[in-house]
Amino acid sequence: GYLVSRGLPPRNVAIGPGWQDGEGQIHWLADHSDERDAAEFKVEVASPNRVCFTLDYKNLPGCAALVEEYRIDHAGVQVTARIADYAGPIMVQVPLLATDGREQAEIEALEKAFRVRYNGESFMVECLAPGRVETRIEAFEASNRNGVYKVGCFCAAGNTIAYRLALDGCRGCG
Q: What is the pTM of this model?
């Protein structure tokens, strides 16, 4: 246990997808971390230059099955989330560092991306698919022992969304 500076946010916040159930209630994968045996992990590729794996979640509320495909390589971390037998919308939330208590970050919301500039570095989260996506920063902040975060969200029609997290300048470097 530890104290945080801003109190608890209205929901759990972690990088990951969200969906609506049949009654319109929004569920976030971060809210279901206590469900045992809900995920199956499978490594697809493991080499010095690339790691690919899938997480297959079952028995989540309002969701028949959720599969996340991860690819980690020189371009960053690319994630594709797909919900079976689901019409949408699908969402992704990403904590964006606002401050560590000493240094302030600059957060920029772009058309299909968020950029965080902090302590001389730049971090980018970009939605790769689908083509049309709503990009927003939530009205609340979330804090943990490392700092205070804004929460960036992508929301899209359909059952699949793909996004990449990378330090700026890393795409295509080798």
A: 0.89
